[in-house]
Design a protein that fits this description.
With 515 residues, this protein is α+β, with helices and mostly antiparallel strands. Helices cover 43% and strands 20% of the residues. Strands 1-8-3-6-9 form a five-stranded antiparallel sheet, with helices on one face. The chain has a five-stranded mixed sheet with strand order 17-16-15-18-19, with no helix packed on it. It has a four-stranded antiparallel sheet with strand order 2-7-4-5, with no helix packed on it. Helix 15 runs parallel beside helix 23.
């Protein structure tokens, strides 16, 4: 039995053009019927349009303003609570405050039009008829949600995320996750991706793997126990999923986190050095870099190149870990020591973060990247003449002469970080997502790819030097504006590297050459 009814006391229609402040003296239902504007109340500002509804209690202040050429038309329905004489204390029916989201807003607008204006009619039946209409209106308002359906759905996803963080086990299917929110699988998946940037299953897997990482490092649990704890019924399935997610097996993940580790490096030497890891061996191809001087003193060569290892020397060194790339010699290396295989195709910063995360040196990597970006900003200020106007920059490796040369489309320091402008053909190639990082170009096309500033690499062998000197005397070379303006910069093969130590050195080279 109800203990309280609401009695209609008046309706008002306002056409608001400029800013307007209304003091609320009675309970008020406010409905926007025309125009577009904003409502400010309870320290919250809301942009409004026809169909938006608000409930305000006595003592509140509401500011309204039109945001269009047309007035903002607002209907206000005022009412008072009337206690019903029953045993006990009357209970105030639950009335929300602020914006509400009725299910049948069109009917509410229709009812407001029927109720306005409120008049004292002689016909008691007419008065009662209006009372009944108002009761329907107030019932629809009382039933209204305090948030719209989409907001409720997002809140359901938020609640699920909180539950997943606290969940003991994470053994869920997509349908089960959707059922937890009360949404259809399709609607749930869309909202989840919009909210987190990932699919539900990918997010759940990341949660599982991060929890597994923590337990691998902080507990003495077996692989089988950890698998069961995060919702895997099969430890082999867990190990396979863990490797897919991190790039390494659970056992290698633990191994990589050793504070002291003897590493043989067949790639990513600059990344390891920047992370404070000096390897016990590396191929000559990696060690022969002027940027590494002072970092690799005493490190023996264990191969001629990154793909031609000296297996006997590696075995003699008894490494704890071997680092390779793209699967090169993975099977042979794995017989000597646990082997970390990192894809070379990963973008530099992603690759560096991955190696740092796997070796437990994320904070070291982040500190380096902050230092590097500060260096980039400093260099951009010094090189501002290159960034003004239409000045363009090219990077060539003069290999393939006399028939061809190599143009580089991806030079991280120049294009990605310093954001220097490439010539039109290079820019066109960069805009193709599947473009190669370099390409052989016929020599007669040299002028098309040469920018106002030209960075070139000439290999140090006698034949490469002879071929380039011959090119310097040719018309192809002499007609280039960069040559005529003295804006050609001859670099070493160290500029072909992309790793933290080399990139910092390349930026300093630019400062010395042009700054």
């Amino acid at each position: 039995m109800i203990s309280l009814v609401y009695i209609l006391t008046g309706t008002y229609c306002d056409a608001i053009s400029g800013p307007c402040t209304k003091s609320i003296h009675r309970h008020t239902l406010m409905i926007i019927t025309e125009g577009r504007g904003k409502v400010h109340s309870m320290d919250k500002q809301t942009e409004v349009m026809p169909g938006n509804c608000f409930l305000f209690h006595p003592g509140m202040e509401v500011q309204l303003e039109s945001l269009s050429d047309l007035p903002l038309q607002v209907y206000s329905v005022e009412f008072e609570p009337l206690p019903v004489t029953v045993q006990g204390t009357p209970r105030m029916a639950a009335l929300a405050q602020g914006q509400v989201y009725p299910e049948h807003v069109s009917r509410m607008i229709q009812l407001v039009h029927l109720l306005h204006p409120v008049e004292d009619l002689c016909d008691e039946k007419e008065n009662y008829s209006k009372h009944v209409l108002f009761q329907e209106l107030i019932l629809l308002a009382m039933k209204a949600d305090t948030m719209d359906k989409e907001h409720r759905s997002i809140q359901a996803v938020d609640t699920l995320l909180q539950r997943l963080e606290q969940s003991v086990t994470l053994d869920y299917t997509l349908d089960q996750l959707a059922a937890e929110t009360g949404l259809s699988t399709r609607h749930f998946s869309r909202l989840f991706r919009e909210h987190t940037g990932q699919s539900p299953i990918k997010y759940l897997n990341a949660l599982r793997m991060n929890r597994a990482k923590k337990r691998l490092l902080e507990s003495n649990d077996s692989i089988q126990e950890i698998a069961g704890h995060i919702g895997f019924r099969d430890p082999f399935h867990f190990s396979r999923s863990f490797k897919q997610y991190t790039g390494v097996s659970p056992r290698l993940y633990i191994h990589l986190r050793k504070h002291t580790m003897r590493v043989a490096s067949f790639q990513f030497l600059g990344e390891l050095l920047a992370l404070g890891i000096t390897p016990i061996g590396a191929p000559y191809q990696l060690l022969d870099c002027r940027y590494y001087q002072g970092h690799v003193r005493g490190v023996p060569s264990i191969g001629n190149s990154v793909v031609t290892p000296y297996m006997d020397k590696i075995s003699e060194l008894k490494p704890d870990l071997i680092v390779t790339f793209n699967g090169h010699h993975y099977a042979e290396y794995s017989k000597i020591a646990p082997t970390l295989d990192v894809p070379w195709s990963l973008p530099f910063f992603e690759r560096f973060r991955l190696i740092a995360d796997l070796t437990g040196r994320t904070s070291v990597a982040e500190a380096w990247m902050e230092s590097y970006m500060n260096k980039i900003k400093e260099t951009q200020r010094v090189l501002s003449p290159l960034q003004d106007g239409d000045q363009t920059v090219s990077f060539f490796w003069m290999r393939g002469l006399p028939a061809t040369f190599q143009v580089y489309y991806d030079v991280g320091v120049l294009y990605r970080d310093l954001q220097l402008k490439p010539p039109a053909p290079v820019l066109a190639a960069q805009q193709n997502k599947s473009h190669p990082f370099k390409e052989d170009i016929p020599l007669d096309q040299l002028h098309k790819y040469a920018g106002d500033h030209l960075f070139i690499v000439v290999s140090g062998d006698p034949e490469s030097i002879r071929q380039f000197e011959q090119l310097e005397r040719s018309k192809y070379w002499q007609q280039l504006p960069a040559v005529q303006n003295g804006q050609v910069y001859r670099m070493t093969e160290d500029w072909l590297r992309e790793d933290p130590i080399s990139m910092m050195g390349q930026v300093q080279d630019l400062m010395n050459l042009i700054g």
